[in-house]
Amino acid sequence: MYIFEEKYLYSYLSAMKSSLTNYFYFFLFGISLCFSQDGKSEITINHPTQGTIWSISDLVKLEWSVKNIDSKKSTRFFLIRDEMVVQELGSFKNSGIAEGIALAKNIGSGDRYQVVSIELFPEDKFQIAKFVSPLFTIINKASDERKKQREQVKETEVPKKTKKQKRKKRKTKQKQATKKETAIPVKKKEEIQQPLKTENTIKTETKKVRDEFEGRKISYTKELEFNSTSIVVKIWDHGRQDGDIVSIYLNGASVVSKHYLTYYKKEFKIELDPNKSNDLFLYAHNLGTSPPNTVSVEISDGTKSENIILNSDLKSCEAVMISVNK
Fold first, then answer.
1. Per-residue pLDDT tens for 238-257?
2. What domains sit in the chain, N to C, each tagged with a CATH number?
3. Over the chain, what HEC string results?
């Protein structure tokens, strides 16, 4: 009888110990879950909001609140319109208010403006706090007045010449030019003639590539070939999202202008010139918080796809050469 009771007591205590251990682990898990949710950093823009009207002639202010972000740290703000960055408003300590901000004079009137905020130097680089304000209005009276004056001038201008009159005038100029050319004396045989272009020189000219753009050096990282001239390109931020603003150029012409990079893939279409190598390069407008600007790029013609990474800073641009198989 004594032995039976001792065994029963031992098994009872073991069961209690196991149950208490499970409850303890469950308790710890609940606490860690609460702390992980409470520790998430957040930013909320309180001003501007829907119904706000900013005037270019006035200094504007920002109001915001943060959660689980040190007040000694800073938040960066951008003014955007239709997902394109119009102006960087600045980086401010998390005091909750920033006043005396001057807007760029070339910003036009409209009601599709928003302010984007992004946390700087986050504790968790994979969890960066950001916020986009509702749409609000900006008024530029000076710009509106200039626009009105241009429209009035157009109304008072003499009607433009018709296509027939333009062709007639162009033919007259061509006839006058040919008369002048025939009047020019023929050069003497003794004069040195310019060397004719050989086949090799023509080939080297066609292979010339753009080595700089607006004072920035261009370096080519890869050569790509596709079967179609119609290409789809997707770009997004590579690595951490740190406020990079970039443009994409094809053969020196802008195809994406001042785009604020996020993890969202922005898609656009381009048309390649089949008779030459096309240069596609990245142009940085700022350096973000982690320079240089790094962009993931996906290029596809529907049957073939290439994934590359391009870097750019304020002195250099990386590019790829794209040609079309004939």
1. 877 778 899 999 999 999 99
2. 42-145 (2.60.40.10), 209-324 (2.60.40)
3. CHHHHHHHHHHHHHHHHHHHHHHHHHHHHHHHHHHHHHCCCEEEEEECCCCCEEECCCCEEEEEEEECCCCCCEEEEEEEECCEEEEEEEEEECCCEEEEECCCCCCCCEEEEEEEEEECCCCCCCCCCEEECCCEEEECHHHHHHHHHHHHHHHHCCCCCCHHHHHHHHHHHHHHHHHHHHHCCCCCCCCCCCCCCCHHHHHHHHCCCCCEECCEEEEEEEEEEECCCEEEEEEEECCCCCCCEEEEEECCEEEEEEEECCCCCEEEEEECCCCCCEEEEEEECCCCCCCCEEEEEEEECCCCEEEEEEEECCCEEEEEEEEECC
